């Protein structure tokens, strides 16, 4: 009888240990853009659910100052994140060196911190899942990316996902469909849309003497800023009372691209109408004073967080029809979708939309109802916790 009780005690202790996982969370950047905001939400959810979180970032940056990160263990490790600038012979050699080096650094960290699960909040870092495999613990990828520019790179990641990971979270159905079409195993993929705590109590403070369009995103080619400037130049030919605010900074290796955008504005002689504001941390205030939010990626955009911020501010949304935005805008019910391959048609659609106050009001009301029912923090938390618990 005594031995039986001891056995039960051992089993209960094992279950108790498994009920609180030590999770190693890995992120690919140190900034305050969309994926990093979702990272903060993930950390909050994991801590609230009783998990111990150790975070790896590839470099120091603004995230270090976030209050939440001061309450968890943080390591800075160059994990060999894939960026476009490394897609050449010497760049790939560079990545290989850091991937190998960081794999063993992470492996050591897994042992020291008694990690139960490795959670990689990107598809651009593979060393964490290699380390998890070497330590025989499960690994999860939370995929925010649709790398459509390189079939070889996509095929490489597909092999990694299928062989090394236990589960792949995709941020949208569009992202899921992309990876499934490239060979990722259907049984491994789960769609978990990003979730937010919405506050729709804001009051718009727009200037009636001018119409302000705001674009918010990191200034990199696929976000379509060149198309946006060309589009706005066409719109300004018919209406002079418009202002375009471009909010965001760029990466060092895209400075030439940013200079090209500034030169294009100068060539078009629209400097009074197009303003580069750089990186700002008062996004809510900027959106509250905007008549329209315009998002113009020219490549597949998995699930842009900034559109939710625009909806929360009750700002009508205009976006290129490029994947994730269509899901958020529920086809054409929650905003205006335009074609980046047809500037003339897009110009006319926007000019008509500016005048159509009824459609703007309907889109705002529809979008508020839609995101409130489908993209809340509560729904996100429930789905994420359900997936994490499946490893217990």
Task: Explain what you see.
With 392 residues, the chain is an alpha/beta fold. It has two domains: 21-195 and 376-389, Rossmann fold; 211-374, Rossmann fold (3-Layer(aba) Sandwich). Helix content is 45%, strand content 15%. It has 14 helices and 13 strands. The strands form two sheets. It has a seven-stranded parallel beta sheet. Strands 10-9-8-11-12-13 form a six-stranded parallel beta sheet, sandwiched between helices. α3 crosses α4 (127-134), α7 packs parallel to α8 (255-268) and α7 packs across α12. The protein is globular and about 65 Å long. Mean pLDDT is 92; it is low at 7-18.
Key attributes of the depicted protein:
Rossmann fold, 392 residues, six-stranded parallel β-sheet, seven-stranded parallel β-sheet, alpha/beta, globular, 13 strands
- In the sheet with the most strands, the strands line up as 3-2-1-4-5-6-7
Global morphology: globular
What's the end-to-end separation, in Å? Answer: 29 Å
Number of strands: 13
N-to-C SSE string, H for helix and E for strand: HEHEEHEHEHEHEEHEHEHEHEHEHHH
CATH homology superfamily name of the largest domain? Glycogen Phosphorylase B
The radius of gyration computed from the alpha-carbon positions, rounded to a whole number of angstroms, is 23 Å
What fold name goes in the CATH topology slot of the largest domain? Rossmann fold
Could you name the ranges where pLDDT drops below 50 across 5 or more consecutive residues? Answer: 7-18
Main β-sheet description: 7 strands, parallel
Number of structurally distinct domains: 2
Derived from helix and strand composition plus strand pairing, the structural class reads alpha/beta
Helical content stands at 40-55%
